[in-house]
Amino acid sequence: MNRRIFLAASAAWALAGCTVRNPAPPPAVVEPVMLVPKAPEIFPIEAVDLSRIDRRYWRQVVPDPTGERPGTIVVDPDAKFLWLVMEGGRAMRYGVGVGRDGFGWSGTATIARKAEWPTWTPPREMIAREPELARYAGGMAGGPENPLGARALYLYQGGRDTLYRLHGTGEPWSIGKAVSSGCIRLLNVDVIDLYDRVPRGSRVVVRQSAGGAQA
C-alpha cells in the first residue's frame, strides 16, 4: 500500500510540473560589433553598431574589381559601393548611400578640395525645391547636424565644381540606400578613413546608374 501511495504521489508531482530538471543554459549574449573613430574629433562621433548594417557594406579589403590604377576612387551607385584601388590587385571597399532617382550624377572628376567638418551651403536648385533651406544660403557651419558630416571631398571637372561631394553622414541607416540629393555619403568613421588615404588631385570615377543618372 505504501508503495502505491508513493508512486501515485510521484505521478501527481510530475503532472504538476514539479519534477526536478536541469535548468536550460541562458542564451548567449552577443556583443554588438562597434565601429569607432581612430582618434578624437573636435565634435563627437557616435560609435556605429555594425549589426544594424548589412555586412556587405562594412569597410573591407577585397580583390579589385575595377581595373583602375591605384589611388583611383570608383563609385557604383547601383551596387552602393565605393572602392579605393590599392596596390597588388586589392581595393578598400566602403558601403555608401547614393542619390535617389533623378538626383544621381556620373562621370570622371578630380578631388580638388578636402575639408574637415565642412560648411554646407545648399545649392540654389535645392533651396528652390525646399524654401526652408534659405536660412542656410550663407552656409551652415560644420558640426554633428551638418549634412556633410565629418569630412567632405569635393569633385571638380575641368576646374569647375560639380557640386557633388563624397561626404560623411551620421545616419547609418542610409548606407546601402538611395536617399540623398545626389552626393555620395559614407559613415562618418568611413569617410574619415577614406579622407586620410587620398590626396587632393585623386581621380574619381562615378559609374552611370542603370536608372539613368546623367553625366
UniProtKB/TrEMBL annotation:
InterPro entries: LD-transpeptidase, LD_TPept_cat_dom, Transpep_catalytic_dom. Residues 71-207 form the L,D-TPase catalytic domain. GO terms for molecular function: glycosyltransferase activity; peptidoglycan L,D-transpeptidase activity. The keyword Coiled coil does not apply. SUPFAM superfamilies: L,D-transpeptidase catalytic domain-like (SSF141523). GO terms for cellular component: extracellular region. Keywords: Cell shape, Cell wall biogenesis/degradation, Glycosyltransferase, Hydrolase, Peptidoglycan synthesis, Signal, Transferase. The active site is at 167 (proton donor/acceptor), 183 (nucleophile). GO terms for biological process: cell wall organization; peptidoglycan-protein cross-linking; regulation of cell shape. Residues 1-16 form the signal peptide. Belongs to the YkuD family. PANTHER family: L,D-TRANSPEPTIDASE (PTHR30582), L,D-TRANSPEPTIDASE ERFK_SRFK-RELATED (PTHR30582:SF24). This is L,D-transpeptidase.
